[in-house]
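Q: Predict the assembly, please.
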Amino acid sequence: MDTTDRKLRTILAEVLGLKPAQVAEFTADTGLFGDLPELDSMAVAGLLTEMEDRLGIVIDEDEIDGDIFETYGSLLAFTRTKQADA
Amino acid sequence: MNPASYFCPLPGGAAASEYALTFDRSRQHRVLIAPALFDEGHKLRRFTIEVMRRLDGAGIDCILPDLPGLNESEQDLSLIEPEDWRMALEAAARHFGATHLLALRGGGLMLPDTLGGWHYAPVNGASLLKTMLRARILAAREAGREESIDMLIEQGRTLGLELAGYALSSEMLRQLGELTPTKRLTISQIEHSTLGGGALWLRAEPDEDAAQADALAAIVAIGIAA
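A: Predicted assembly structure:
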């Protein structure tokens, strides 16, 4: 697990209120927002701001669609792409 | 824990009674809480009260006032500016005879200059606004409408804007975007990482965390005793 992976899991644990041990078990196929109805637009917006602050990326609203948040793997892949752009 | 109220000055020279939650036994040390703003205020309210319970247990009075336009306040938020919140906190500090301040998140953007204290998890006004703008764009998209930050800012500049259910005036948007945490020798900033654990204002649902409340109350209680 590299730094980006670790940081992303930490942020998700905070937003979802999960224990570190639970997010440590996330795999690329773990479903995120489709499986978690309590994640409303405000929570997603907070998550994006936190990702920008802690992962050193800038996320444009146009890039955000449901696919990014479908699984942990898709969110990590999106984050890595943004870091490569930065 | 008791409900109380204070007279809060309003724009245009009027005044209104605002609600405050207090642990008040007329003790020597009295902490005025500057609550987190907007949605973060709801997410952090339980945590805030847990911190107050611990301060009460440590022999310290504390007061959590409503700011005009937020929480139970009957004032129209769309007529309020951050400067009104500063005046509200000043009025509450006078009314309750506060000796110290504890600000949470955006509550530390407009502190009265008469008191010193602590600012937990400081945040810029611009970051608060950006998160709320994003939430609005995401909600609009789910409803099949496309909005952009630039478009919303342009609209807000003349007409004001409703963000995450809060009606913000053009003046509120302008001032909030420029506010940064109060920097003063008498205000100590406490980064969230000092408390450990996840940030409660990020949670999808309001929550509390006993260890974090213990840690924040301890910093304040030890600081007051010093």
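The longest helix of chain B spans residues 38-57. The first strand of chain B starts at residue 2 and ends at 9.
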